[in-house]
């Protein structure tokens, strides 16, 4: 009963307005007040600051700076085997498995459209039909930068406007098409073994989604799908190596990774299993 009330409340709250207000507060440099908020957050969510490049909460000028904190160089090891893809984020596995033609499994009783996830663009979705997917949820305590599972050349980025439901496990079980209805940023890469899509999904109080090549993508892009294409050569070309930072969330969310058919075999994660940046995410099948 209480879970149903929480979900119903999400439908009626002004999620975009709340998220933008929280974003402004999180960006504020309020001295002692900011430090006190960071300390409270660390205590509440049991954040492991021993892994952070800057362990002292007072060293962060804003909450956003703390939330997107870099880790120490040796805090994560990127799996070295060339056949292995690296887990792109710290978090928890939501779901993973086969893309059944254009359908991705969200939770019991809920599937959603691959094409819708990728911005309603059939030409971008076509290579991934009958491929593999993995959805990973980032909790508030987690490291909130996203890294590359394998080497890749960026070909397309799509901003997709949408809602801002929470993306926690409860909402994933109760809100149909959650990841294909929330605001998101889609990045498509050519890799040496096929195409890879990395989808950064927004959520309630996510202040912004950033990529390393474009900076802040959302907000304030707007109410229309926006599609950018990138060259393979020249100053605007974007090539990232396995383990390189791809982007970051300010205040948490979810990533969905998609791969072409017969490209990878996903590692044996069950729903709810913890994930750790750099561990084996998948293995190339060719």
From TrEMBL:
Top EC category: lyase
A GO molecular-function descriptor: phosphatidylserine decarboxylase activity
Quaternary state and interactors: Heterodimer of a large membrane-associated beta subunit and a small pyruvoyl-containing alpha subunit.
Name of the coding gene: psd
Gene Ontology biological process terms from the UniProt entry: phosphatidylethanolamine biosynthetic process
Record site: Cleavage (non-hydrolytic): 252-253
Localisation per UniProt entry: Cell membrane
Enzyme Commission number: 4.1.1.65
Function: Catalyzes the formation of phosphatidylethanolamine (PtdEtn) from phosphatidylserine (PtdSer).
Lyase found in the keyword field: yes
The name this protein goes by in its record: Phosphatidylserine decarboxylase proenzyme
Family: Belongs to the phosphatidylserine decarboxylase family. PSD-B subfamily. Prokaryotic type I sub-subfamily.
Positions of modified residues (Pyruvic acid (Ser)): 253
Post-translational modification: Is synthesized initially as an inactive proenzyme. Formation of the active enzyme involves a self-maturation process in which the active site pyruvoyl group is generated from an internal serine residue via an autocatalytic post-translational modification. Two non-identical subunits are generated from the proenzyme in this reaction, and the pyruvate is formed at the N-terminus of the alpha chain, which is derived from the carboxyl end of the proenzyme.
Cofactor stoichiometry and binding remark: Binds 1 pyruvoyl group covalently per subunit.
Source organism phylogeny: Bacteria, Pseudomonadati, Pseudomonadota, Gammaproteobacteria, Alteromonadales
Catalytic activity: a 1,2-diacyl-sn-glycero-3-phospho-L-serine + H(+) = a 1,2-diacyl-sn-glycero-3-phosphoethanolamine + CO2
Lipid biosynthesis among keywords: yes
GO annotation, cellular component aspect: plasma membrane
Keywords, comma-separated and alphabetical: Cell membrane, Decarboxylase, Lipid biosynthesis, Lipid metabolism, Lyase, Membrane, Phospholipid biosynthesis, Phospholipid metabolism, Pyruvate, Zymogen
Record membrane topology: Peripheral membrane protein
Pathway info: Lipid metabolism; Phospholipid metabolism; phosphatidylethanolamine biosynthesis; phosphatidylethanolamine from CDP-diacylglycerol: step 2/2
Alphabetical list of Pfam families matching this protein: PS_Dcarbxylase (PF02666)
Active site (catalytic residues): 90, 147, 253
Listed cofactors: pyruvate
Major location category of this protein: membrane
